[in-house]
Design goal:
This protein has about 55 residues and is mainly α. About 55% of the residues lie in helices and about 0% in strands. The chain contains two helices and no strands.
């Protein structure tokens, strides 16, 4: 039986690696307090609802 290979239109692994690398570069020299402020700011900017906080 012959299988056909489909071309990906979206590569989730590649996207996740790019996002992780960007965040790592932005936060690499931050103190714990600076990192907490960075995370809180990003959450506020995106208006993301945290799990369990409804």
């Amino acid at each position: 039986m012959k299988t056909t290979k489909k071309e990906k239109t979206f590569d989730a692994v590649k996207m996740m690696r790019e996002i992780r690398d960007k965040i790592s570069a932005e936060t690499q020299n931050m103190t714990f307090e600076e990192l907490k402020a960075y995370i809180n700011q990003k959450l506020a900017d995106s208006k993301t609802e945290l799990v369990g906080q409804r």
